[in-house]
Amino acid sequence: MKLNLRGAIVPNVGLGGLRLRVHVSEMDDLVRGLGVTHPGSYKLAAPYEARYTFAAGAVEAAVDVRNGRVFKLIAGPGYEGNFQGLRIGMLVRDAIRLNPSVYYDEAEELLMIRGIEGITLDVPEIDPPPSIVPGMRIAAISVYAVEIDTADTDGPGNPPGLRWEAMPSTREPTPAEDKRIEEVLGRLREHFKIWCGPNARGQEHHLAWFAYYEGCAGRDECCGLILDEAAPFALGRELVEHHGFRWVMLPLDGEWRYGVAHPALDAPIDLFSLEDGSWNQEEYDQPPYRGMLILDSLESIVERVGRAN
């Protein structure tokens, strides 16, 4: 991954060219030699949270040390990207004027945006009187994986909601996990609405494939992030709604991963693992963008089910 201080800020997805939920090894070019061969630092911020700081604090990544995955990304001073016009250094009153859904949550001591999960805005003081918040400046913008947005069950100082315990082999998605599927695919349809009609639900696989075909992932970072996030869910919905699969959740390294299962297959398929190309027989003239290998696995999966039947 490459750092981009002008990159799009996408709630529940990523910022600065970095993505949530990836393993820290995918940031190897940034992490290796950090503070030695290139500027930056790292520390254990809490018993289960490693914090990596890049570009003099312009970007920080919070990683759960138990599974090595990025659960929060923070844009700080020096970051030039924005979210819907909201940017670092902006006065809170100007942010509220620009987006009236921005509000200060006194209990969380954070600025939030009604109706949008996976993003918070920080002010520079801890627990300021609410009356002075409008005159303060936005000191940081964080995006986080919404599945961690739960009560702190592991004790003080640990990443909230990241408690990993013994898990069954598979289970059905919870309503919250079903909601995430709808939200991710809804963002895909909204972003590429020029190419889909009002009845596009269930056609997200074709929509995402067409967007890749048109080269959107290479032209615009925000498009690439949305396609990368949506690819596993678009393939999953295609398999569930048109090929007799069902959604399941699979345990891996202490977290639940989205998958699909079919009676004709010996084991469920981890949708995110398809990025390794193991179910893909396509040939590419140039290295594919992230998510393409997942989408293009459809034909091989359907063929495998056909042979098994």
Attribute tags:
309 residues; 13 strands; globular; eight-stranded antiparallel beta sheet; alpha+beta; 8 helices; single chain; 21% strand; three-stranded antiparallel beta sheet
Shape: globular
| Main sheet: strand order | 3-4-5-6-10-9-8-7
Low-confidence stretches: 149-168
- Rg is 20 Å
The total beta strand count reads 13
Number of helices: 8
Q: Average the pLDDT over all residues and give the rounded result.
A: 84
> What is the helix/strand order?
EEHEEEEHEEEEHHHHEEEHH
Distance between the termini: 41 Å
Approximately how much beta-strand content do the residues carry?
A: 15-25%
Q: Name the quaternary structure.
A: single chain
The biggest beta sheet is recorded as: 8 strands, antiparallel
**Structural class estimated from helices and strands:** alpha+beta
Helix content: 25-40%
